[in-house]
# Entry
Amino acid sequence: MQLTMPISSRGVGAAAAVTLVAAVVVGAAGAALGAPLFADDFEDGNTNGWSKSGGSWSVVTDGSRALRQAGTSSDARAFAGASTWTDYAVQARVRPIAYNGQSVGVIARAQSSGNYYALALTGGQARLVKRVGGTTSTIATGVASVPAGTWATVRLEVAGATLRGLVDGAQVVTATDTTFTAGRLGLLTTYASATFDDVTADTAPGAPPSSSPTPSQPTDPPGECTDPPVVVGFAAVNAWGQNGTTGGCGGPTVTVGDATAFLAAIARPGPLIIRVNGVITLPGPMHDVTSDKTILGIGAASGLTGGGLNIGLPVDDAVTAPPADAVHNVIIRNLVFTGTPDDAINVQMFSHHVWIDHNDLSRGYDGLVDIKRGSSYVTVSWNHTHHHTKNMLLGHDDGNGAQDTGQLKVTYHHNFFDRTPQRNPRVRFGEPVHVFNNYFLYNTDIGVACQASAGCVIEHNVFEDTEEAYAIDYAGPKGRIVARGNLFIGESAPGTIGGTVQEPGTYYGYTAQSADTVKAAVLAGAGTGHI
# Structure
């Protein structure tokens, strides 16, 4: 069902009529970033409110109902929204069908079919363009790989003279230009064909509505996550009353940019998606995260400094089995952690179903990612750790077998352990601990230390100039290691192995890529800005 209602905000007009579609969910974390101005998911089967120029536009079924422009013989444009909009962002899910050497994309500040800004995709490149009097010129270019047949979330932000283009949540291009100050949103295909869905407009960062909501309250409508990211490893397992890790899916979304709003959001009960905009300085040292949360950085540079995140109940040595109120179902993605006075991320006290993915972690005081005291069903993937010594700990003490034996089931895959001397990770008691498809570079002490009865499967990793790739006798009681398919470059050397270990494949399905492809894959995809 579509609703039409006036919304008054800066750059929109005192009573600009905009179309809002109930329960629209878009973007990398499931919702628009700012105050909603417009949304259309085409589920009503029509294009009411849209004007078109060229092409062959129709509502089709492509997974769900969507708007398709099927012709490739002309410039084609579709416009909606208000001509008085100034500072805002237009966003859409876009699936190019055929580029034909040309482009598809989204439009902002359109004054007519011949005058507007656009973020245009060409398959391997994103271009910020302006069209003046029907003549198109390129303002800036960036890298964005969106092959034909692939869905991508494309966003163009216009705030004052600043133009920003983002693809799948990562900024790919930016520029300044003052040609157009206001206009409608739109969609474009230039001698190309494409399908568009979940088209939204919201107030861009730097252009808040005149009556801002309380920072810790939802700024976006609730809704289920569509096309949620797929977790691989123990965080995907059905166990302890939780089937996989979905974080805040099903709850509302908030966008936060300061410590007060952030801390209020992570403390709220119930499912919640928390989008972090910019670098937030926390009062330190550690701050508790409640169950059913997704914490997601916007772009490649948003994150936390001055304090870290604690996922777990207070320490209690008397608790030796998973309690009913254990913290669970938490996702932390695409955040930069630096300057933490304790741990960057600490998981403890039987917390379970935690996914730590695509983060950049460095320059902390203690651990960057520590998992301990019975916590299980955790995946640590596609992170870049650097400029730090005590990297990752799994199991904190040789004497903690009462809590840890049979627990600490963790998967580490596609991480870049970049000149982190030790604890990559250091493991006690956990079994199986699955370490696959990671890139270890110049770890001057050790890569994986598997001890204190732990069982580790270490496969298809790359160790480059790592003094000792892995060992069962690094320090303290011995563990067990099964190693296979690993690649050693430079002065790297395998260490001690032995014993039998449970196979991770008995818990979840996975495909380990060949080690000779891992380095390139990790360098291209680990860290922030790649989701």
About this structure: DSSP finds three helices and 46 strands in the chain. Residues 196 and 481 are 49 Å apart (CA to CA).
